[in-house]
Write a structure and sequence with these properties.
The protein is 49% helix and 22% strand. The chain is α+β, with helices and mostly antiparallel strands and 179 residues long. The termini are far apart.
């Protein structure tokens, strides 16, 4: 909103802007009104478009069957989708703001850690297969730098395929010995 006043001191003007006014105009300067209205409309449109884009992105990330995690530059979770909650057994409200290394200490010293650090440092992407021992699951992981800093991890549980391949290999070995 735009505040119009007959007289306004500097402190009152600052307080008006802090409380959400887009602008203020003294009655003596009403010629500024069209420009102030145009600026206010442009800002409102930009906020609306940004909010809608964020909502669309959230809908997409939440509908993914793959896990999606966003970490800040301090390795703290700032986004966790529903697939991640299901796969790792923790709710997002338990993870947000906490360090990945604190919440999942078994990842320290793994290829995932070294690749994630490389991605963050070199601003490149990486793909790897990672076993997470505490839940005995295998994941295909893609790591890439996030715009504005931080890191995104996209992961798919490949445990069933991995175990099937191992079972097939054992069966092949048994057949070789049986012949």
């Amino acid at each position: 909103f735009i505040f119009i006043s007959g007289a306004m001191g500097e402190e009152f003007a600052v307080e008006t802007l802090k409380r959400g006014a887009t602008d203020y105009i003294l009655k003596q300067r009403l010629t500024r009104l069209p420009a102030a209205v145009e600026r206010a409309l442009a800002e409102a449109l930009e906020r609306t478009q940004r909010r809608k884009a964020e909502e669309r992105a959230s809908v997409i990330l939440e509908s993914m069957s793959e896990m999606f995690i966003a970490l800040d530059t301090e390795w703290r979770f700032f986004y966790v989708n529903a697939a991640c909650e299901r796969a790792l057994g923790k709710r997002r409200d338990e993870l947000l703001g906490k360090s990945i290394w604190t919440e999942y200490p078994a990842l320290a010293g793994t290829p995932l850690e070294s690749q994630a650090r490389r991605v963050l440092h070199e601003q490149v992407t990486a793909e790897l297969e990672q076993h997470y021992a505490p839940c005995d699951k295998w994941f295909d992981v893609k790591a890439y730098p996030a715009e504005g800093g931080g890191l995104c991890l996209q992961a798919r549980d490949v445990t069933a395929a991995k175990r099937t391949a191992e079972d097939l290999q054992v069966t092949e070995q048994r057949l070789k010995f049986a012949l």
